[in-house]
Amino acid sequence: MKKEYFFMKEALKEARKSQKEGGVPIGAVLVEDDKIVGRGHNRLLQDDSVILHGEMDCMESAGRLMGVDYEKCTLYTTLSPCPMCSGAVLLYKILRVVIGENTTLMGAEDLLEANGVEVINLGLDECREVLEEYIKDNPEIWAQELERVGGSTDLED
Q: Is 55 marked active-site?
């Protein structure tokens, strides 16, 4: 379990990079054979994008891997992946996803598990606190992002 925390710390570095750029602090790394082959962070605001969630940016930065390589990968993400990002995991047959936390926002974990993906939730306070701080400081932006995807959150002021 020690390596899961090491790679999640790398995903958190990406989340903080997004925050420093004025974006939503969500980050991810893609790991094959204990080596980071891709890293990324949420770029929705920075790039005025509709698809550059942390996981998608991470997968894009890894480049076009071979199918057999994706099957050996683990995706580490600071937040539970949404249906779009989960769909990309399924499309490329990534068999393992490690999540920093899912209390701030629950993604499509059931979809992943129903399709044979191992999902591990570390439940890390640090991942939750980074995003909660952003939401507290940027409630209008967060509400707009949730409205776009039909999501909701139980966070209160």
A: yes
Phi/psi at 114 (5° precision): -65, -20
Catalytic residue among 55, 113, 132, 147, which? 55
Tens of pLDDT, residues 21-57? 999 999 999 999 999 999 999 999 999 999 999 999 9
Which residues pair with residue 97 across a beta bridge? 75, 119
The arrangement of strands across the sheet holding 118-121 comes to 35-41, 27-32, 73-77, 96-99, 118-121
Q: What is the three-class DSSP state of 38?
A: strand
pLDDT in tens, 89-113: 999 999 999 999 999 999 999 999 9
Tokens of 138: 């940027």
Q: For residue 9, give every residue at least 6 positions away whose Cβ sits within 8 Å of its Cβ, in sequence order, or none.
A: none
CB-based burial label for 36 (10 Å; 0-12, 13-18, 19+): middle
131 neighbors 109 (Cβ within 8 angstroms) = no
- The answer to whether residue 12 scores a pLDDT higher than 60 is yes
